[in-house]
Amino acid sequence: MDPRIARSRRAIIDAATTLFLNQGYPATTMDDIAEVAGVSKRTVYNNFPDKEGLFREVVLAVTSFVDEFINEAVRELADAAEVELSLKDLAARLASSVIGDGVVRLRRLIIGEAHRFPDLAADYYRRAPGRVIATLAIEFGELTQQGRLHTPDPELAAEQFAYLTIGAPLDRALFHSHDVGTDSDTLVATAIAGVTTFLAAYGPEARGRRHT
């Protein structure tokens, strides 16, 4: 792609992201996006034929970061020397990634427009939180085979891990317009406490307790 075209496209996506997050989908026009991006309206339409397509691009662009997170944090679990330490590190990174202001605002936007774009909302879930949970389930299954966890239902265990570590802080962040228990120290402490609870149920010693 021509570098000038790539720069214009990036500027359009950045402008659209800012406007959609700040004023919502219905109130944002292609004229607004062109003005903020510093390009002509024709340039916007040359890259994105309609506002719906641009909105989809904005929403799904963030899912590219999921690949990096999964490759760096989740897929290392089965090879970890210390499962507990690796789970705590993963939980802290998950909390920092998901409960950042940009992701929370994007999730609010997607939820608010789910009635208008149900397929897009479902696609976002599949590519982002759903994919993280699915990958966690695979890793938990492998750790169970190694005898380092005991997860009879790895997918359920993955869902419970996610809620124990970030569920409550994420709910608070979604429903408050200002920080409420979402400072970094509180997030990390909550995530680590969630891992402790998770291991009490799914640690290797849980296998014996369930048969007593």
From TrEMBL:
Taxonomic superkingdom: Bacteria
Alphabetical keyword list: DNA-binding, Transcription, Transcription regulation
Listed PROSITE patterns: HTH_TETR_2
Signal peptide start and end residues: none
Keyword presence, NAD: no
Biological processes per GO annotation: negative regulation of DNA-templated transcription
Record keyword Transcription present: yes
DNA-binding positions: 29-48
Pfam families: TetR_C_7, TetR_N
GO molecular function, one term: transcription cis-regulatory region binding
InterPro entries linked to this entry: Homeodomain-like_sf, HTH-type_TetR-like_transc_reg, HTH_TetR, TetR_C_Proteobacteria
Boundaries of every HTH tetR-type domain copy: 6-66
Protein name per UniProt: TetR/AcrR family transcriptional regulator
Species in which this protein is naturally found: Nesterenkonia sphaerica
